[in-house]
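User: Here's a chain of 408 residues. Predict its fold as tokens.
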Amino acid sequence: MSDTINELADSEKDLFRSKIESFFSEQNTQTDQSQDGIGDADTTSLDKAKSFQMDLSQAGLAGITFPEEYGGAGLSDTHQEIFNEVSASWHMPTSPLSISHGMCLPMLNQFGTHEQKLRFMPDNISGKTIWCQLFSEPGAGSDVASLSTRAVLDGDQWVINGQKVWTSGAHYCDYGLVVARTDPSLPKHRGLTMFIVDMSDPAVEIRPLKQISGGSGFNEVFFTDLHIPKNFQLGELNQGWNLAISMLMFERVSIGASAGGLNTDRSPDLIRLAQDSGQANDPIIRQKLTDLWIKEKIKGFIGQRIRDAVSAGQVPGPEGSIAKLNGALIARLARDTSISLVKAEAQAWDAENENGEQWTNACLGAAGISIAGGTDEVQRNIIGERVLGLPKEPDPFKGAAWEDVPRS
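Assistant: Prediction complete.
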């Protein structure tokens, strides 16, 4: 739907706003300075996220703009904006679902068949199942199009072999969207296809990667003769790069322009922290907090523009890269500001302080946002080429078959 927030009657807006406020009040959900990890979610936070999402769904507040036929609320983007506005004052423990809802769900909605949407979207929206995305490989990081995981059609099944890496949350996900090479005789940006995979299949091996923070949110994933039904193909054959680009744009929007979860504004919490710690009148602290607040407001306007486009059925374009780059810069600014406030507590804390390590984890994790969904350098290249019209970097193998391109 494409209505604006002014096209709903005031009484309808007030009624829907009251419904949301009542839901959060009944949930007794408070604002929270801690950030629930996407990949690092433990059993408690995962159960909390799924339970909260199920309650949202039963209240008619999940998948607000998706059709009722597919498990959504069937409402307008206006309702979504009202929900975003009200929920910003509360803590939603749904970060473990950020990829599932921010990336995989819109892909299913945009490119799935009617049967795929009926089968997979309701459980995704309600949080009954959680999804991940599988793009990067050891030899295909920023250059995802050079990936080598293969999918070969064998009768009425696809057989997938290969390896993925840096897959957030793979260890607790039920399904995943994977891009594999289906025709190596075509150039690297062609001959790719996207598939739905069952992460619980014995042919899928998941190995957590230990991070410097001590967490294990990222994973290596190995496919060894994984057989999937032919109808688990998402989108057209050999058009997977177009889907991959769309999904990367949804990821960049999720990182840089979504509401809640990973992208929750940090300035309100940090302002309260400055007030509680008696630092609110420090001119340097005030300047940092003001800068962060302004940048987050700008981020919100960018996000609203993108979400309106997505609600109207458009796939995010280079504006997704602008939002993602901006989100990464803000994450580092929030990190630096929080460290200025908590000082030594960011590195050492009292043993009885259960939340002490949150500052260290937030500090260490902020840098990763500059990598997820494409590095800052990749985003700047996209902005330079697609927004500013700058020439692309030369590619000596442009147009060559993937199988003919040298690889280390």
